[in-house]
Amino acid sequence: MSLDLWLKSEKCPHCGRSDDPDFDWNYTYNVSKMWFEVFPNADGMVDIDGLTGKESLKKLETFKAAMINDPNKFKKMNPPNGWGSYTTFLSAIEKLIEAAKEHPDHIWHSWR
Q1: Residue pair 110/7 in contact by the 8 Å Cβ criterion
Q2: How many domains does one find in the chain?
């Protein structure tokens, strides 16, 4: 199972139609235990669906800081099947942060 996230403006300012995503991302759900460690009441892994890039930054940066502050705790949560890891998930979160900063007014969408 995986999580797809994409960031896009709701409508094209010129024609009014929805445009293609400006950023899209897919990652294995096997690391969801790490996300839930920081956000136990989250509504799904990387629960930023519906937020703007700007609105998502605090949550994403909080998660990144938790991972960096206690890497051993998160490394112990590496999936035993090898699909996903602390290192690749941290890198993926950094990409989400970068995308949110580049597109602060765009909206996150997800598919689980």
Answers
A1: no
A2: 1
Considering only CA atoms, which of 43, 35, 48, 37 is closest in space to residue 7?
48
Distance in angstroms (rounded) separating the CA atoms of residues 50 and 17: 18
Closest C-alpha to 34, from 1, 4, 73 = 73
Tens-digit pLDDT profile for residues 33-65? 999 999 999 988 889 988 999 999 999 999 999
Q: What is the pLDDT of residue 96?
A: 93
- Three-class SS state of 43: coil
Determine contact, residues 102/23, Cβ cutoff 8 Å: yes
Contact 6, 25 (CB under 8 A): yes
Q: Which domain holds residue 30?
A: 2-111
Work out the pLDDT band at 2, boundaries 50, 70, 90.
confident
The answer for residues whose C-beta is within 8 angstroms of residue 73's C-beta and 6 or more apart is: 37
pLDDT in tens, 86-112: 999 999 999 999 999 999 998 888 876
